[in-house]
Design goal:
Elements (H helix, E strand, L loop, with lengths): L1 H22 L3 H16 L8 E2 L3 H12 L8 E4 L3 E3 L2 E12 L2 E14 L2 E5 L13 E8 L6 E2 L5 E14 L8 H12 L3 H10 L5 E8 L7 H5 L4 E10 L7 H4 L1 E4 L2 H6 L9 E4 L1 H5 L1 H5 L3 E8 L4 H6 L6 E6 L7 E2 L4 H10 L7 E7 L4 E7 L8 H4 L9 H10 L7 E4 L2 E4 L2 E4 L10 E4 H6 L3 H5 L7 H10 L24 H7 L10 H13 L53 H16 L14 E10 L6 E10 L3 E6 L5 H16 L1
Parallel strand pairs: 1-6, 8-16
Antiparallel strand pairs: 2-4, 3-4, 4-5, 5-6, 7-14, 8-9, 9-10, 9-11, 12-13, 14-15, 17-18, 17-25, 19-22, 20-21, 23-24, 24-25
Helix pairs in contact: 4-5, 12-21, 14-17, 14-20, 19-20
Length: 665
């Protein structure tokens, strides 16, 4: 019985199997062939596909040639429903390409043919692109939209397209003249390296225009006649995004030029050789916002079509298969005041060491000027510098002392020297003997008595100093700034001589000139200033407030005062400065001008000036070198002036501040 049952099952299985074979009309094989082709063309590698009518190796090369101009882009290809007709099948292939900011979608019909027990893909170039002929490939052209402007206060155009002249040797115009001699003459005229330029001209092709220099048209001293007098030399008019002058806020704004190799590598395919992009500063940080997206045109053309044939044809021999319209960039709005920025730069023009002037509007936090002097060598000293603030930090000490119960009229002891754990602290050279002894806190602040403030170290902990600094808007996060900056580092713990040094803005205390201006501005405002430089950062890079190499130059060799690694920015203070506390500090800052050593500011016209000087020692020289600081408030203006290796704050930075405030009006 068991044997007959097994036999019956075997027969049933045979019948079912025969039925399955009879039902297989070949659809599965055709579908698999279609999917295999779709997968292969998605990778732009059809070397494994069996074709009818084309050798696989030839087909592989042809597919690569057709799409080479679109590299590194690849399509996503999906198969629609297969239609079967005996040993023939057709299937729609749906292509989707991401091209720039656009999406190129099309559907083609692919044919498949059964040969023996195998389905082959029927070769036809139209299964790659609709209407494509066997001898055609694709080409891709892009055109960037005009770069958007960077605007300043009142939407003044800080960086905009300005006329330039691209000066160089046009080799076809040389005729029989000596290329090296002409190149040497032109290089000498425009001030570039003659040997290097001559070599460049000689190495270039016979049809090349070899640029030597791009000159601003406005105010240029080299005339068209001088250029034309040199064989083969010519000036080609153009316009490029430029600031009002070569130096104007360069470390803050950055510049525009051809993408560097490093930028191309880091862009993930967004930039390629020859692309114009932002280099350093806001131009680089907000490049995507300013650049917009380029127009893209994809054309089908004969594979052997030359550039000359295209340019010489009455009608374009190529046909457009897809195009994306450009998206213009969005102007970047900043708070920089063009007049104050230019004034700050001219004020620093003759300062040898690294230097900075930062001016801001306390009421709004708007950064009006952030100038770094010529000695900064292109580094953004104004916003990224990390320096001991010296006695300007006595503003923070004073706030901590006010919170400990003192008033500007409280008495403190100002002695000639004070020794802490074996280290002797003294007052600056020329300290007036009339302000020694038991003096008011106001008087100790006005004359900057180091020993008086250090004598209070046991009443004010390092943690209280940190809290007071944060209360004045420094050593905190300010996402509203919209640009890279260092806003100060105040350790929350320090003992002995380090805590004593902190009381006079030394030890491990670090501020930037921007942070010093914020500190002064918070006194003028009566609450912490939250600085703002970029007003519409939404479409650009993430607004950052951490220090970073955003300037287009290497920072100068760091001095010991600037090598301490800044602590991560703290959160905003939970006990911000009050109007009453600010009024007391304002009274003390005014005393620096009326009775202290910044009396030279008394003659500045307009609202009364309040100030605080600072001299911070650094390095191992004997006597030590010093950073010179001064901060001031003048109506709704807060200013910090800094000179690295600058002597005394009052005598070095003070006159620069007076010059700036007087001219600022």
């Amino acid at each position: 019985m068991g044997n007959s049952k097994n036999l019956s099952l075997a027969v049933i299985g045979l019948i079912l199997g025969a039925g399955l074979v009879a039902c297989d009309d070949g659809r599965g094989g055709a579908e698999n062939a279609a999917k295999q082709f779709a997968s292969a063309v998605s990778a732009l590698d059809v070397g494994s596909v069996a074709f009818d009518g084309r050798d696989p190796a030839v087909a592989k090369q042809q597919v690569q040639d057709v799409f080479k101009a679109l590299d590194p882009d690849k399509p996503a290809v999906e198969v629609g429903d297969v239609t079967l007709d005996g040993d023939n099948a057709t299937a729609p292939l749906n292509y989707t390409w991401k091209i720039g900011a656009g999406e190129w979608k099309y559907t083609v019909s692919a044919k498949f043919k059964k040969s023996g027990d195998k389905w082959l893909t029927v070769w036809d170039p139209t299964i790659l692109v609709p209407g494509l002929a066997d001898n055609e490939i694709l080409s891709k052209g892009t055109q960037a939209p005009q770069r958007a402007d960077i605007l300043g206060a009142g939407d003044a155009k800080l960086v905009t397209y300005r006329p330039v002249v691209n000066v160089g040797i046009d080799k076809p115009q040389l005729g029989t003249q000596d290329a090296a001699a002409a190149a040497t003459k032109l290089a000498q005229l425009v001030g570039v390296d003659p040997a290097a330029y001559a070599q460049q001209v000689q190495a270039a092709g016979a049809e090349a225009f070899v640029s030597a220099i791009t000159l601003r048209d406005e105010g240029r001293t080299i005339s068209d006649q001088q250029i034309a007098a040199i064989p083969g030399a010519r000036g080609i008019p153009d316009s490029v995004p430029l600031a009002p002058s070569r130096t104007f806020a360069r470390a803050v704004l950055g510049s525009v030029g051809e993408a560097t190799a490093e930028q191309i590598d880091a862009s993930g395919g967004a930039l390629s050789a020859g692309d114009v992009t932002g280099i350093g500063g806001l131009q680089q940080q907000y490049d995507a916002q300013l650049r917009g997206t380029p127009a893209v045109v994809i054309r089908a053309q004969r594979a052997d079509l030359t550039r000359e044939e295209i340019q010489g044809a009455a009608t374009d021999p190529r046909r457009v298969v897809f195009q994306v319209a450009p998206t213009p960039g969005t102007p970047l709005k900043t708070t920089l005041d063009p007049n104050l920025q230019a004034l700050a730069e001219s004020t620093l023009a003759n300062v040898g060491p690294a230097s900075a002037i930062v001016a801001l509007r306390p009421s709004s936090g708007a950064v009006l000027a952030a100038a770094s002097g010529p000695g900064s060598n292109g580094y953004n000293t104004a916003m990224l510098g990390q320096y001991a603030p010296g006695s300007t930090f006595k503003m923070v000490d004073s706030l901590a002392l006010l919170r400990d119960g003192l008033t500007p009229d409280s008495k403190v002891e100002c002695t000639p020297t004070l020794t802490v754990d074996g280290r002797t602290f003294k007052n600056s050279e020329g300290y007036p003997t009339s302000s020694l002894g038991s003096v008011t806190l106001r008087d100790a602040f006005a004359h900057s008595c180091n020993t008086a403030f250090i004598s209070q170290r046991d009443n004010v902990s390092q943690g209280q100093l940190e809290a007071a600094a944060m209360a004045m808007g420094v050593a905190v996060e300010v996402p509203s700034l919209g640009a890279a900056a260092f806003l100060g580092s105040v350790p929350g713990a320090a003992e002995g001589t380090e805590h004593a040094a902190s009381m006079i803005g030394q030890g491990k205390i670090l501020l930037s000139p921007l942070a010093a201006a914020i500190m002064a501005g918070s006194v003028a405002k009566g609450s912490p200033v939250s600085p703002q430089l970029v007003l519409n950062p939404g479409a650009g890079a993430a607004a950052g407030t951490t220090a970073g190499p955003t300037a287009d130059a290497t920072p100068p060799s760091p001095s010991p005062s600037s090598t301490v690694t800044a602590e991560a920015p703290s959160k905003a203070s939970d006990k911000p400065i009050t109007a009453a506390e600010a009024a007391a500090l304002s009274d003390m800052m005014r005393a620096v001008v009326t009775s202290g050593h910044a009396g030279f500011l008394a003659s500045v016209p307009g609202p009364p000036v309040g100030a605080k000087t600072g001299t911070a020692e650094f390095g191992n020289d004997n006597p030590p070198k010093t950073h010179a600081w001064i901060v001031a408030v003048h109506g709704d203006l807060a200013v910090a002036v800094f000179v690295e290796d600058g002597g005394l704050g009052a005598t070095t930075s003070g006159p620069l501040l007076k010059q700036f405030l007087t001219a600022a009006g």
